[in-house]
Amino acid sequence: MEDVVEKSASIERLSSMSLEAAIARRYPFPGKAGDAIRERTLRLCRDHITSGLADRNCEQRLCSEEHTVYWQQFSEVLLAYQLQACGLKLSHAAEGPDFLVEHGGQRIWIEVITPEPKGLPDAWINHSIGNVVSLPHEELLLRWTASLKEKAEKLLGSVDRRNGDRVPGYRDKGIVREGDVYVVAVNGRLLRGFGGVIPELNGISQYPFAVEATLAVGPLQIRIDRTTLEELGSGHQHRTRVRKPSGAEVPADTFLDPSFSPISAIWAVDVDEILLLGEPRPMVVAHNPLAAAPLLPKFLPAQSEYFADVHADYYEIRRDDGVLAK
Length: 326
Description:
By secondary structure, the chain is an alpha+beta fold. 30% of the residues lie in helices and 22% in strands. The strands form 4 sheets. The chain has an 8-stranded mixed sheet, with helices on both faces. Strands 4-5 form a two-stranded antiparallel sheet. Helix 1 (2-26) crosses helix 2 (31-50). The longest helix is centred in the first third of the chain and has 25 residues, at 2-26.
């Protein structure tokens, strides 16, 4: 029995050293700030692993040298930390969305995704100082629409392209029940330009990508009289579709489509390890006006929240301060 306990303790020490080495390798920053990032990141990851909120392969993924694998996992760690810092109590099931919050008799599920920078120009991701680069707004928006599609299928089910079989979602399996709130949490950390230094959630419309991807908000435009060339007015384009490089179009109005009413909101964030130094990171919530189970305003940590007020023959985008607004 003593041999088993000693072996278990040895494995635990080895695992701990492996995680410590992985964090040190990923954050080789000098000075006190570097020490603080490594120490706080390591402590947070260890706490998450032992908290019951992590999948069994969490530590393995945190030790991965693959940038995207690490960030998919570390995003869950950071968002759990942020939610708990706001006083919310989380739980985690072996199958289902990443986190469950039970509040006021309602269940709020949170599913996390960190979109990879597929299709983004190299000049944007690996920017060289002194070179001019434009915002690849459509390519970025496509990463947000793809993330929402992936997590919508996790909830609602999908069709296997290889054999045409239906793949059941969380609703089919009875994990997310009717009346439950379902939130897609998107961390845009890997989509940053300029070497990944500056966090940014807003698209070309100056609204967050989460709003552009769900409420058909396009770029600003000016209407000009073709005869007099006088300006007739200005406003945002009503953009319901975004064209992919292949020519196919994807929807950018999912929150105006009743078939997506089981999705309550998008919690859009751009968080990284700097959050652990007390530096605020941008966070917004985009609410689904057709949600079957709406998310309460100011429930999730965010500086801003966006709503679509639906009127008889039009809708209007409204921004309110979130709980993190100063």
